[in-house]
Predict the structure of Zinc metalloprotease.
Amino acid sequence: MSGIQTVLAFIFCLGPLVVFHELGHYLVARWCGVKVLRFSVGMGKVVWSRRFGQDQTEWALSALPLGGYVKMLDAREGELAGLSEADLQREFTRQNVWKRIAIVAAGPIANFLVAIVLFAGLYMHGVEEPSSKISVRAGTPMAQAGLHSGDIVTAVNEQPVQVWSELRWQFIQSAIDQHEVRLAVERPGQGRMAVTLPAAALQGVDLEGDVPQQLGLGVALPAPVVLRVLPGSPAERAGLQPGDLLTGVDGVAVADGQGFIEQIRAAPGRALQVTLQRAGQPLTLSVVPEAGEAKTSKGTVTVGKINAEIANRPDMIRVPSAPFAALEKSVVRVWDTCTMTLKMIGKMFTGEVSLKNVTGPITIADYAGQTARLGLEYYLSFIAFISISLGVMNLLPIPVLDGGHLLYYSLEVLTGRSVPERVGEIAQRLGMGLLLSLMLLAVFNDVVRLL
């Protein structure tokens, strides 16, 4: 069932985004007076089509479900013999360069507008997320900077934050730019204070991993209290009861539920001495976790389980925004995502970031399925990010992509003449080769990640 859900989530994510992208081209082409011959969802052989409108534009579904295109009346793609003078005036290459720029740019712009609308809707509704209350590991850069577990971060680099995702986003941008991180913090019982993480602390950070975690920062989790014990479980046999406050395992203190769970998972079949507080009195129990299987990024592994529910959920908040504030936040979010994506692409070319970050349809489908299972809010947020990625990738100056055509037209604006046809043909072949190479790399990375 999860496989079917993943496929459907992928289709409902990518399909509409392709349609909106091509609608951008189509609507602006019509607005500029260019005749549109076909609007296709999918590539390759047409399997279904109908003609509508005064121009009898063909609306089609094609065999390959990835991608789509808008075919306009274009002298470079066929004979114009037999057409009326009125139709010839509507041919694409006869339009002035600014109209051609508008038509080509409209596709990526449509993707950005979709993301803005989705983010604005999510911001107005509010998404339940972990708050910006933090935990800090001892001996890490964040601890050395002066942060304490239980601090509430209210701003990062003068940008207000209320939830963990906003805080994490600011840290990622600082790591990419390699500049210091300035935090405004509320500390219970001590009030407001400022903490600065120097830029030097970010130099060894792996941009492909969890940036805050590498610096010693995490979401604050509640104290490890037993909430429920399943009948016949190792926890029940050991004598654990709801309400027990867990304090340590084999002499190692545990600060939160996650720390306790990790200790249990690491000891399948081995007796552990668990210290706890029950009704204010200290107690030590011997617990033997049973062996079980769990799926991880490294495959299926054997872990310890005691079948008890431990408090492990962080403080969650929902922060709805007024319409204009939500729109402003969504525009900033889309802009920041675009610039961060371009910076990451630049770092791939310079070797600062691994090419394994290039992902393809398998990874997108996997993430689509995961976010769909988490809920509609997460799924819509994922679609917004994919829409931004489509917009950015299409604007790259690679021939055959929108960005390549925009590069031609920009040169035409600067020089006053169009790019020679022969040069354009060579560039198209090179661009197609580069695009196919990127696709092969993406699929290879997907398969490696899957295995």
The chain has three domains: 104-126+322-450, 130-219, 225-310. The CA atoms of residues 223 and 255 lie 6 Å apart. The first strand starts at residue 36 and ends at 52.
